[in-house]
Design a protein that fits this description.
The chain contains two helices and 14 strands, in the order ββββββαβαβββββββ. By secondary structure, it is mainly beta.
Length: about 200
């Protein structure tokens, strides 16, 4: 952001400020927090991060970024604001899993950098009964249709990592006080088929 790197978590980092919401119930639970993306001691972005876990196993993720007091340019990067790393046995490289997307493309070479409404990572999680086929499970991430730049490009790797990469192909600039809202739906599922 503005040429500053946040990956190393050294001088620049995302710092939790306080909880905005903490709700639990039979059907769903929600936690939301306010975080500051800091360059040294100065906030660059204010972020509201909200997760809602539902009884059906879906996770709703809402991220809202506001430029604190100056323009903020989100530079080109293959990493998005949300990522999932699957268990090693599910990974393509280690466990024989597979990555699929909306267009039916399969695995890193075909999907990396492509735009898609959703991406799925599935693989074996247990041996089959009596020598039968392995039991599979996976995770599907949906890019909400209301998100800017939908459908998003995807960063995926055969070592088990995948992410909707909002600014993979071009930067995005927020004016002071301007907001960017991104929503994602994460669905854990049994079986090899993505939850479209």
């Amino acid at each position: 952001m503005n040429g500053e790197k946040f990956w190393a978590d050294r001088d620049n980092r995302c710092v939790h400020q306080w909880l905005l919401k903490l709700e639990s119930g039979v059907e769903q639970g929600t936690v939301a927090s306010l975080n500051h993306w800091m360059v040294g001691t100065a906030p660059l972005l204010d972020e509201t991060r909200e997760f809602t876990l539902r009884a059906d196993g879906t996770l709703g993720v809402t991220l809202e970024f506001t430029a604190h007091d100056r323009a903020v340019t989100l530079g080109v990067t293959k990493f998005g604001f949300l990522a999932v790393r699957v268990a090693r046995p599910i990974g393509v490289a280690a466990g024989g899993g597979k990555i699929t997307d909306t267009a039916g493309r399969v695995n890193e070479k075909a999907i990396y950098g492509q735009r898609s409404a959703w991406c799925d990572y599935s693989g074996p999680v247990a041996p089959g009964k009596d020598g039968g086929p392995d039991v599979w499970a996976g995770v599907t991430i949906h890019d909400d249709p209301a998100n800017p730049r939908h459908p998003t490009p995807w960063m995926c790797r055969e070592d088990g990592w995948f992410s909707p990469a909002f600014n993979m192909t071009e930067p995005f600039t927020l004016k002071p006080g301007e907001k960017l809202a991104l929503r994602y739906h994460v669905i854990a599922h049994d079986g090899a088929e993505p939850v479209a």
